[in-house]
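Example record

The entry below shows one chain as it appears in the dataset: sequence first, then structure tokens.
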Amino acid sequence: CDHDEQQARWCAKGLPRDRASLENGAIMMNSRRWSLIIDPQNQGGVWIKHKEAERSLQVTRMGHAKLALVFEKAIAAGTSVLIENMGETIDAVLQPVIARNFIKRAGKRYLKLGDKDILYHNTFQLFLQTKLSNPHYPPEIQAECTVINFTVTEQGLEEQLLFLVVKLERPDLARTKADLIQQQNEFKVRLADLEALLLEKLAAAEGDILEDV
């Protein structure tokens, strides 16, 4: 995907447009490890919920009665899980999952969850979110996670506060800006789709490519 098109898709799902947030989005999307996000203002959490909704995201918390069941289903189906509002303690049942302690058997990978070995689906995704500004987790947890700080920067806060002031004083302008940003995002995504379609047609074309118009 084109860089601008990627960012347009992220922003359309609720990621703030300031530089720090876009950099965080790029880190998260390109990391092969679980994302552990420091998110006092919940901006990263909101984005993940919108972004992963189409992948049947399950949102849960440490200590939840059905925590193990949520993970059992998601690991087997290859869907996403967000553990939100974490403290500094990790439920023991999740340690093997977060640490990726795979059990290999007959060419397949399993994760131990309590007394069960769950067949691991490669598209499973785990997101960990804490609202603590300076959390401390065990080294084995941090080793398997990419720590991403979504704490709002001064510049990002200025941009967001300016928008709120405009929204309050001139709601018509705020609405127009929001509509224009949404249109711009949609145009970038549409342009990328058309470019991909054109390249596909060029690759498959036989004879005079100008005939297929």
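Notes for this example: Helices lie at 3-12, 19-30, 43-51, 67-77, 95-98, 139-143, 154-169, 171-204. The beta strands are 34-38, 58-60, 80-86, 102-105, 108-113, 116-119, 125-130, 145-149.
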